[in-house]
TrEMBL record:
InterPro entries in the record: AB_hydrolase_fold (IPR029058), CBD2 (IPR001919), CBM2/CBM3_carb-bd_dom_sf (IPR008965), CBM2_carb-bd_dom_sf (IPR012291), Esterase_phb (IPR010126), Plant_Biomass_Hydrol_Est (IPR050955)
Gene3D superfamilies associated with the record: 2.60.40.290, alpha/beta hydrolase
Protein name (record): CBM2 domain-containing protein
Keywords: Hydrolase, Signal
Domain CBM2: 315-416
Keyword Hydrolase: yes
Signal sequence, start to end: 1-32
Domain of life from the UniProt record: Bacteria
Pfam families: CBM_2, Esterase_PHB
Amino acid sequence: MRLLPKAVHALWITLAATVVAATLLVASPAKAATLTEVTNFGANPGNLRMYLYVPDRVAARPGLLVAVHYCTGSGPAFYSGTDFARLADQHGYIVVYPSVTASDGCFDVASSATLTHNGGGDSLSIVSMTRYVQQTYNADPARTFVTGVSSGAMMTNVLLGAYPDVFRAGAAFAGVPFGCFAGPSKWNSQCAQGQLTRTPQQWGDLVRNAYPGFTGTRPRMQLWHGTNDEILSYVNFGEAIKQWTNVHGISQTPTSTDSPQSGWTRTRYGSGQVEAISMANTPHNLPVQASAAIAFFGLNTGGPTTSPTANPTTPPPGPGGCTAAFRVTSSWSGGYVAAVRVTAGSGGVNGWRVGLALPAGTTVVNSWSGQFSGSGSATQVTNASYNGRLGPGAATEFGFQANGAAPALSPACTAL
């Protein structure tokens, strides 16, 4: 497997050093919680190392973020050099930092194994880490996300494409589309230089063919790229937009365009399934906007707790009943993402149904962990095959993305 061309490799190393030097100005979390290495986390065909950050206080069922480092970097360097762990202290989610052991320090985003669902490679190693945390720390599958920079951004695209059943959304900082680097070598000059262009359908087919049997909701994608990127051409930004809008079956024409910061142009597509931020006059070493990524995921809602707490506006469930608590996890002009927590009474339940009185005109465009029927005030959600049986006091969550203004709801839960 060929490494990077010497000139490009040297430039990437220089940029990586600059990233570390610049971002280390951000202090590491001043908490008792520390970064810990985890071994024996499951299948590890990529021979990666796993580093884990669990804040001193976590949410009752914490969200999970996988943060993937740049080429020549490491998990510990990405932990120290970005704000994701500091934000985890504030919001109570858990962070996994995969770390490459290959001599070039780059993730495998090229092999057929890593680009195929359950095919192997680095992507499966990262999924093993993700599932380990979900099982060990009760992390919420409905709030599991991935982000990365450069090589990590390319891996973010790979994970959303090959494992849409694992990740709900991703934020890629200076990456390339899924499958753009595919081939026998880890480096693909044609893709890197922006010479590899395809139709939206062709890009979308690469993603769909990675997991042909997948019929669920595709994860949302947030894309970041500098117009002066000298390592991974800015052309890849447009190609990634083509790919992910096609995967979601939405138009390439933005539904909104704004400038959240001077020199930035943000475009949104569909009902927020794809969000793209172009950063003018910015090189490959772009500033990582951790807070913006966390907000896109909805991980910034609610503070951490030491143990599960009841929603004060929701009465406790009866012995054979259940309750449902609604919350908006993120919103934007024209749409929002929400989660509903279902809690069983002291007798447990073998199935549940939640009534959501959504405002007239609301359209649910994506959903997960529940089966939706009806519309508007008659919207009903029943359990999926895997989360209907709840023991006494146990809880599960389902979520959805909808258009319209985010409502305030008091959903009704019925045990089946």
